[in-house]
Amino acid sequence: MKTLFSAILMAALAVGIHAQSRLDNAKKQASQNKQLILLNFSGSDWCIPCIKLHKNIIETDEFKKLETENFIVYINADFPRNKKNQLSSELKKENASLAEQYNQKGLFPYTLLLNSEGKVLKSWEGLPSENALAFSKEIRDIKEHQK
């Protein structure tokens, strides 16, 4: 009985520890490299504004420069509906935990710019009106004012 209880406890702790691993890793990386964290909540296979956001901003070279030039750490908390696009149970739990903490209204798309401690610096509800260049510039400007 002790062994069963220990196994259940270890499994619960492992899930709890893993549930925030992307955010925890992003906070650590952001702190070490003086970066910001961009957290995006999306429905990649059902939310038309989410799909447009990814196509017109996140997948562009201008946005990717933010990552390669160490301005941001990017996290996508995706909530797909189609069976073929389902995430692992661990990733589903992690995304649900992120939503519980940062997106309690269940908005899609919903994008947050966080500092290395996880404090919200800016949020975008829905599809940002800016193009990729303007969106990236806004993030760069916010980061510059953080110094």
From TrEMBL:
Residues 1-147 form the Thioredoxin domain. Keywords: Signal. The keyword Hydrolase does not apply. It comes from the Bacteria. Residues 1-19 form the signal peptide. It holds the Pfam family Thioredoxin_7. This is Thioredoxin family protein. It comes from Chryseobacterium joostei.
